[in-house]
Amino acid sequence: AGEGYEQGAMLDNSGGNTDLNSMLDSMITRCEEGGSGPAKFMCGSCGKVMARKKDLRRHVETHLDMTHPCGICAKVMKTRSSLAAHYSIYHKNEVSSPWSMI
Question: Residues 4-21: pLDDT tens digits?
């Protein structure tokens, strides 16, 4: 994940991010491991299980037929977190926040 960029903070005021997050959440199922212990979360597309919902939300995004182009060099990423990492590595001196460019 990109340093300095929180996935949940992306485009919060546009409404588009809220719809995408709702779609991602609908693809995640909460499951219990053997009825005890901490809750786990499972991807509805491939069955992958992770302990943290935010990590699985990032994973589930890879199953969607979506791309996220860089606004500076036009490189295309599969997830928002990959785009954030790209900005922080390759364009950190060119933009203060990648989400202000969308």
Answer: 333 333 333 344 566 888
